[in-house]
Amino acid sequence: MAETTPPVTPSQAFRFCPRCGRGPAERPEAHVLSCPACGFHFHFNPVVAAGVLVEDGHGRVLFVRRAKEPARGLLAFPGGFVDFGEAAEGAARREAREETGIDVEGLLFLGSWSNLYEWRGIAYPVVDLYFTGRVGDGTIASARHEVEEVVWLRPEEVDPAELAFPTTRSAFARYLELRETRARTGDRPEAQGREAASPAR
């Protein structure tokens, strides 16, 4: 059986300077690449992803079953990486539309967690930003981009072992706390956080 090569960080993927080609490149810090020959200096900062926990009018939450690795076949929330020039709120809405065909309303910030996303031999540091949102009655979600199926589940029906990533589980746990607070205080969702504005057109 062939041995699996452990993933490397983005800075470790570069043996030589990407500007002048000389090497080996130096790493004064874990996520910094520096070249003594030409002075090139680059910080590998975390990338940003946005996801949304979508509620319907029946107390259910929308999950997508991932069609591709990593975590193929497991459940996640609609979401993905933030594009250049895009706000996190806009990314959450866009990803929900691309993956399930729905337009999310009432976006509220839930929380952020750090993550490592392994892809093709590189472990990317990621900051996952999660929001909550809602859809109106009669909204139909369907499996689209990189999604095997969409599943509406009540919170008590969710098996945490089926959730794709540690940050998925952390966001869901925070969401459960939020629901308990709502039930106890009778607050509307908007009272639990600040509603995200729609991106400027």
Describe the protein in words:
The strands form 3 sheets. A 4-stranded mixed β-sheet has the order 6-3-8-7, with helices on both faces. The relative contact order is 0.19. The longest helix is centred in the C-terminal third of the chain and has 20 residues, at 166-185. The chain has helices spanning 88-100, 166-185, and strands spanning 32-34, 41-43, 47-55, 61-66, 75-76, 79-81, 105-119, 122-134, 147-153. It contains 2 helices and 9 strands. The protein is an alpha+beta fold. The N and C termini lie far apart (54 Å). It is elongated. A hairpin with a 2-residue loop joins β7 and β8 (122-134). It folds into 2 domains: 7-45, no CATH class; 47-189, Nucleoside Triphosphate Pyrophosphohydrolase. Mean pLDDT is 90; it is low at 197-201.
In short:
The chain is of the alpha+beta class.
- Distance N terminus to C terminus? 54 Å
Structural class by SSE content? alpha+beta
CATH architecture of the largest domain: Alpha-Beta Complex
Strand order of the largest sheet: 6-3-8-7
Q: Tell me, what's the shape?
A: elongated
Fourth-level CATH superfamily of the largest domain:
Nucleoside Triphosphate Pyrophosphohydrolase
Sheet bearing the most strands, described? Answer: 4 strands, mixed
Run of helices and strands: EEEEEEHEEEH
Total E-strand runs: 9
Average pLDDT value? 90
Give the low-pLDDT segments. 197-201
CATH class of the largest domain: Alpha Beta
Number of domains: 2
Percentage of residues in strands: 25-35%
Please tally the helical runs, counting DSSP H or I stretches of 4 or more residues.
Answer: 2
Oligomeric grouping of the chains: single chain
The radius of gyration computed from the alpha-carbon positions, rounded to a whole number of angstroms, is 20 Å
- The helix content is 10-25%
Briefly note the CATH topology name of the largest domain. Nucleoside Triphosphate Pyrophosphohydrolase
